[in-house]
Design goal:
Blueprint: E1 6-11, H1 18-26, H2 30-38, H3 42-61, E2 69-71, E3 77-79, E4 86-92, E5 95-101, E6 107-111, H4 117-123, H5 126-138, E7 145-149
Length: 150
């Protein structure tokens, strides 16, 4: 994988289908199921299960068939016995993301926020405003997520 970051994303809203949710839930390791169970709201449970299932898929793509996880003193999960493989998970609204790399890796997915025009006009140049407003027109009425892999 040599200095490569692999990024996987998935739509977690499909887990509103109870049968699919149950199938993915039961396929997760005990700690991920326990984490999902601690959430109060169903949408948060779905995001946790979707993130766990996406991580399983990503690890299978790396030929890690039966992963074992532990947690650092800082609370970050890691793969036991796979020192050269690192991962990070993120989720927002109905989207989940997983990044896999040979070195420490981070990722973030966020739902696009509504542009505060007054603030933008105060802090941006005319050129930047033209670029932003042009993008906004092109993406109007679309559900959009920004995805970052670090």
């Amino acid at each position: 994988m040599k200095n490569l970051v692999k990024v996987y994303t998935a739509d977690a809203t499909v887990l509103k289908d109870e049968q699919l949710y149950r199938r993915l839930y039961t396929g997760l390791d005990v700690s991920r199921r326990a984490k999902a169970d601690r959430f109060r709201f169903e949408k948060d449970k779905r995001l946790s299960v979707a993130a766990g299932a996406l991580l399983q898929y990503a690890l299978q793509m790396e030929n890690v068939r039966e992963p074992s996880f532990d947690i650092t003193s800082n609370g970050k999960p890691y793969l036991v016995g796979e020192e050269s493989l690192h991962f990070n998970l993120s989720h927002s609204e109905g989207m989940v993301m997983c990044a896999i790399a040979e070195k420490e890796v981070g990722c973030d997915v966020e739902k696009k926020a509504v542009l505060n025009r007054r603030l933008a006009e105060y802090v941006m140049t005319e050129y930047e405003l033209d670029r932003i407003y042009g993008l906004e027109r092109n993406m109007e009425q679309q559900k959009c997520f920004f995805v970052f892999g670090l």
